[in-house]
Design goal:
The chain is α+β, with helices and mostly antiparallel strands. Helix 7 crosses helix 13. Strand 10 and strand 11 form a beta hairpin. It has a domain of 127 residues: 2-Layer Sandwich (Uridine Diphospho-n-acetylenolpyruvylglucosamine Reductase, domain 2), CATH 3.30.43. It binds protoporphyrin IX containing FE (HEM). The site of protoporphyrin IX containing FE (HEM) has 22 residues, from helix 14 and helix 20.
Length: 510
């Protein structure tokens, strides 16, 4: 036997187990899992070698992007959750599909969703995020698991108590006031204004002040870099990553690493300045200061510099993008439902007059709260909640094998007629007249902020900010959609209007 043959045989011998493992993972396992689910009555699109359902997901998504909707239609799942919608129609409420060779079960019934999200033992953990998402959010509260999550959550929670948030109302109102002063020029000439970017900058300004007591200008680089990273992550969201590809110095990775370094440097300088100021003036009363103080009290469990950087990244992302879209879609809904715009204005003028609203005034704005809840039901900024079964589980009457991902498309749940009534697809704020628990046939049917222990820590912050800004807009302007508006909600990690939201403002007090 020649040396070459010997080497080749040795190589083959070494590679055989890998080859076998790959074969099991890419062929046998999907086949066995699909069969086990089929026996339980759970069907779905067939598994395709290596790609799973990704090819079909891409094709359905591309087709959906060509659809535009009637300006008043809230039937937006055709555009932003097209494959969930198609497969629900084809295979029923619970179905199986494949992200590569990774099995995913989709559920939208609120009782099953609650069983997953509020599982007492934490058996449905967060999924492993794509590498780019870690760069975006760090190992902050949104992504950490187990005891690490407990440590982070107890350091961050004190910053979000209602007392602390009430103090922040003043900051929120000041940021809104300077934005709305700019709007006055547009209103005076009845010129069109593109509100998406306006709200993005306003929300960035609010979170920068609330979290760091610093201005938007100082945090600008951080927001820009985070938004840039977000775009790149979305681009590769629908492709399968070759394991290890995140470490290859490709042009895209080099650029992403550069953005991450810049982000980190900026955040370190903000945090270090705060640590240095402790002796002089204490840590301060903003989110960062409160977090640093709470962390210091956790004996042996203090957050490290890296932990704090990651929490700051999380604040920026969670606080900016979601809240600005919340406001954007609320303005869209009030522009297309003028009678509600009028009702809210009356309420705001009755409770606040032309004063800058404070927390007490805001607490009396019942109709405003109802409209905001209806807006977040129909246009939830996050559209899918994701978990993974950490062990074999029984969910309802389905056996879920360990390692299965569970997708919970919020917008599908929010449009279920059997839960929300025959008008589930309509804008009807009255459904929230008696609060969220009684708004639907299931007490935790509203999922926009999630439910259970991992529910959004910033939901009161977001509601307070949205109320403040909306009340101040209603005091000053009436608004309607520009004729240029095209109703095309688009999924970009969050739900964005693809062509923006151009609005015509009219001043109420000349
Ligand atoms: C309209 C605005 C917002 C929406 C719709 C929203 C939605 C959500 C949702 C759905 C989750 C749970 C994700 C999951 O279970 O996988 C979440 C978690 C979280 N949100 Fe928000 N959020 C908003 C605003 C904010 C704000 C303003 C902040 C902070 C300033 C914030 C900070 C967080 C954090 C830290 C978590 C992780 C909580 C944990 O895992 O313990 N969010 N948010």
């Amino acid at each position: 036997m020649s040396n070459l043959t010997l080497i080749l045989s040795a190589l083959l011998f070494l590679l055989l187990p890998c080859f076998w493992k790959a074969l099991m993972h890419l062929i046998w396992r999907p086949y066995a899992i699909a069969k086990a689910f089929r026996k339980q009555g759970v069907r779905g699109p067939p598994y395709k070698f290596w790609f799973g359902s990704l090819g079909e997901m891409k094709r359905i998504t591309n087709e959906a992007m060509n659809l535009t909707l009637d300006k008043k239609s809230h039937d937006i799942t055709t555009r932003i959750l097209p494959y969930y919608r198609k497969w629900t129609e084809e295979y029923g409420d619970v179905f199986l599909f494949w992200h590569g060779a990774q099995p995913k079960i989709c559920i939208s019934d609120p009782e099953l969703v609650k069983q997953v999200l509020a599982n007492k033992f934490g058996f449905y953990g967060k999924i492993d995020p794509p590498s780019g998402v870690t760069a975006l959010l760090g190992k902050g509260l949104v992504l950490v698991r187990g005891s690490e999550w407990v440590r982070h959550r107890s350091a961050v929670s004190p910053a979000f108590t209602m007392d602390k948030l009430k103090i922040l109302t003043k900051t929120m109102a000041e940021c809104a006031k300077s934005t709305l002063q700019l709007w006055q020029d547009y209103a005076d000439d009845e010129r069109e204004i593109e509100v998406v970017q306006q709200f993005r900058e306003l929300a960035a300004d609010v979170i920068a002040h609330a979290a760091f007591g610093s201005s938007f200008i100082e945090g600008k680089q951080v927001f820009q870099d985070q938004n840039e990273l977000l775009k790149m992550i979305v681009q590769r969201n629908l492709s399968i990553e070759i394991p290890g590809s995140e470490y290859i110095p490709s042009r895209r990775n080099l650029y992403m690493w550069k953005l991450d370094r810049r982000l980190r440097k900026k955040l370190i300088s903000i945090i270090q300045a705060r640590l240095d100021s402790k002796e002089r003036s204490g840590y301060g009363n903003d989110l960062l200061g409160i977090m640093l103080e709470a962390s210091e009290k956790q004996e042996g469990q203090k957050l490290s510099m890296d932990d704090i950087i990651d929490e700051c990244k999380t604040f920026f992302f969670a606080g900016q993008e979601t809240t600005s879209l919340f406001l954007t879609w609320t303005i869209y809904l009030l522009s297309t439902n003028n009678e509600w715009q009028e009702k809210l204005r009356e309420e705001v003028l009755r409770e606040c007059g032309m004063k800058i609203p404070n927390a007490d005034m805001l607490s009396k704005l019942k109709l405003v709260t109802m409209v905001l809840l209806e807006a977040i039901r129909l246009y939830s900024p996050f559209i899918v909640l994701r978990r993974k079964a950490d062990k074999d589980m029984n969910l309802g009457n389905i056996n879920i094998p360990k390692g299965t991902n569970i997708d919970m498309p919020i917008m599908m749940s929010h449009r279920k007629k059997e839960i929300w009534g025959a008008d589930a697809g309509e804008f009807n704020p009255l459904r929230f007249e008696n609060g969220t628990v009684k708004a639907a046939a299931h007490p935790t049917a509203l999922l926009s902020f999630s439910v259970g222990p991992r529910a959004c820590i910033g939901q009161n912050f977001a509601m307070l900010e949205a109320k403040t800004v909306l009340a101040m807009i209603l005091q000053r302007f009436s608004f309607s959609l520009s004729s240029k508006y095209i109703h095309a909600p688009m999924f970009l990690i969050t739900v964005n209007p693809q062509y923006g939201l151009p609005v015509i403002l009219k001043p109420l007090h000349v």
